[in-house]
């Protein structure tokens, strides 16, 4: 099939090696091709608006911003480009957030190439893709008002608060979290205060312990 007739795909992924591998996988297909790549939310937004692709594949964790924030910005601007969210995190908390933000699918980076292509083709076909292992829980979460008492305290964190909480759990200092998200130390301190309030934590020690335990539990599930 001539390249100009193939489905156009934009990749927004800040890990060069993974982005290169995914681009190679897509370009091997006869009916689709990567038309643009970006390693950050700003360039990704511009590429998607410029190319108007058949599909955008966006990493949920980007430098300076999250893929969820990029997705929300696209939807706020009226973009209806189908989006498949990528993540290193297999559990359903992020999948639920992605679907609520307007994604058409969610898949982890650890999946085999065949499953990745299944997800891409399913979203290109206008369908929703989710890992069958998490389908039931994700659907149940979406049917629950995220502001209700049925949601856990961690599920009530905003996307940015959750990103900060996760980085704290990975052992990052306040300065390191600020550098990773490209915001000031003062801003991170504000997020830390909000997280402690929402989770009912009294001090930094409890925050670090809670975050570390949460990250370790999720890694155990992934393993």
Topology of this protein?
Blueprint: E1 7-12, H1 16-27, E2 32-38, H2 41-51, E3 55-59, E4 61-62, E5 65-66, H3 67-76, E6 83-87, H4 92-101, E7 105-108, H5 113-124, H6 132-142, H7 159-169, H8 174-181, H9 185-199, H10 204-222
Parallel strand pairs: 1-2, 1-3, 3-6, 6-7
Antiparallel strand pairs: 4-5
Plain-language structure description:
With 223 residues, this protein is α/β, with parallel strands linked by helices. The N and C termini lie far apart (40 Å). The protein is globular and about 60 Å long. The chain is built from ten helices and seven strands. Helix 1 links the parallel strand 1 (7-12) and strand 2. It has two domains: 3-142, Response regulator (Rossmann fold, 3-Layer(aba) Sandwich), CATH 3.40.50; 154-222, Orthogonal Bundle (Arc Repressor Mutant, subunit A). The longest helix is centred in the C-terminal third of the chain and has 19 residues, at 204-222. Helix 7 (159-169) crosses helix 9, helix 7 (159-169) crosses helix 10 (204-222) and helix 8 crosses helix 9 (185-199). It has helices at 16-27, 41-51, 67-76, 92-101, 113-124, 132-142, 159-169, 174-181, 185-199, 204-222, and strands at residues 7-12, 32-38, 55-59, 61-62, 65-66, 83-87, 105-108. Helices cover 53% and strands 14% of the residues. The strands form two sheets. The protein has a five-stranded parallel β-sheet, sandwiched between helices.
